[in-house]
Batch of 2 targets.
Target 1
Amino acid sequence: MNLELTYLMNSGFIVREGGLLLVFDDFRDPKEAVRRELAKGFDRLYIFASHAHFDHFDSHILDYEAQASHFIFGYDIRRTKRAKAFPAEKTQYMQTYDAWEDDALHVASFDSTDAGVSFLVAIKRTGRRIFHAGDFNWWDWIGDMAENRKLAENAFRKQMKKLAGLEADLAFFPVDGRLEGAMDKGAKVFCAETSVRALVTMHSVGYPVWTPPAGFFEAGREIPVWSPRAEGERRVLSAHGFLA
Ligand SMILES: [Zn+2]
């Protein structure tokens, strides 16, 4: 079975596998892609938010409260005012290095280098594994003081140790245009040190489509890449890569 992917905005995506819908970091959905996806029919809907920043978590996802099996949130969201409106019986907060499961999914969380968590979601029926980084990245701001840049690198590399060897069918990872020449440093190390089989780049609103430069992948380890820009843009991830 293929994975059907829809880009919402920033780090927001829908992943559909059959009747299973996973929504990640839907802070804004100008094309109403989630509503359209629900209208096509579904068995289960899980809504993830990696952390509380406005560009990852927004209360409008409460519109899907009736349809959602679970809201699965990074621990920092619990402390926000917006979180109070979510139904406690179907809202799960995850600490770092936490795990949660039901009959359909197993979810593991990792630490971020910014706020909240990143998620590794395993679909039990098919064994598919999907990683969503949230704001985990090597935030290397080129104009910043050397000391801060070193701290950012250390934080990133420390967390990468926990992710080393990770196997996933698909990873969503930031390649943020604001980082200029350093925008793909985090993604490059992430791809080198894990075994992800396809990469979707995110968190780069307003910047041109990113394509991997020569040398981005280690020799013989190239994987398919999708760098969406238009809200509502869709791809199917098949055995042959991302198909329009
Ligand atoms: Zn962000």
Target 2
Amino acid sequence: MKQVNLDWGKLGFNYIKTDFRYVSYWKDGKWDGGKLVEDNMITISEGSPAIHYGQQCFEGLKAYRTKDGKIQLFRPDQNAKRMNNSARRLLMPEIPEEKFIDACIQVVKANEHFVPPYGTGATFYLRPYLIGVGDNLGVKPAKEYLFSVFGCPVGPYFKGGLSPVNFMVSDYDRAAPHGTGAAKVGGNYAGSLLPHEIALQRGFADCIYLDPATHTKIEEVGAANFFGITKDNKFVTPKSPSILPSITKYSLMYVAEHYLGMQVEERDVYIDNLDEFVEAGACGTAAVITPIGGIEYKGKLHVFYSQTEVGPITRKLYDTLVGIQFGDIKAPEGWIVEVK
Ligand SMILES: Cc1ncc(COP(=O)(O)O)c(C=O)c1O
């Protein structure tokens, strides 16, 4: 097979059209068999509830090229489960876990020549999505659905890679206390575009959202979860029903405890108590681990470990997680699915 010729080390997090995507339709109460297609355009009714009422959800996961040239997925079952949680929240049909994973595998295999070589730092990002389609006018669930998966080779999401970046606390909320914050639905992201833009214009990588009810606790770091390392070496990450349950964060909690022997706490993280952390980071599939240099809150920049260097614990977490994802470190049972 001919590998496409891209400057792998310089890739950002951008759309690149690859050769094949998977599509499957739900109609009359059931899914069709699904297939790979070459066309990256979709044609849907102008009345589709996905367009007007945001009846859609999506996922993000990656395929990794290992040192011996194999390709593997990282915990795709967790993405399938989360997509089905999102689907239930918006009254959309669930996708059987095997169908979800099979779709991802088919897309990776069909686009294998786009999967970046080992050692370049780049990966193949998969974007499954589920949208309510068909003729409709009133606010109600669609009668038909499209489930699709496409993929693109990607580099780092935040420009710094493993260099620390700064974030600012936003006055906006990304989710309501009993809203859709825990679901991966487009509406949450539409509402984040303006605060994100404000953060960029002010020279920050993104914004930090506080809990929508009291504005006293950290919830999310843009499209990533937050973690901090305390002076006594605990891995701490916020717990809240309006946070997106990050698969990377739950994986890091496991890595911190079982690989690095740290104590782990999932609990409230107060924005007025950042002094409890000696290091902090943003974590997610796209963000991987991005060290947080500082957080601006009420006009003051709170600096953690350093503005220029990654802290030692954050680096260990990064090396272990990425080592597992690229197959250099033995993964816990069931975390890796090889693409054969
Ligand atoms: C809002 C938000 N929080 C957190 C995450 C990180 O989740 P994960 O680690 O599953 O990619 C993402 C990305 O998926 C996200 O969009």
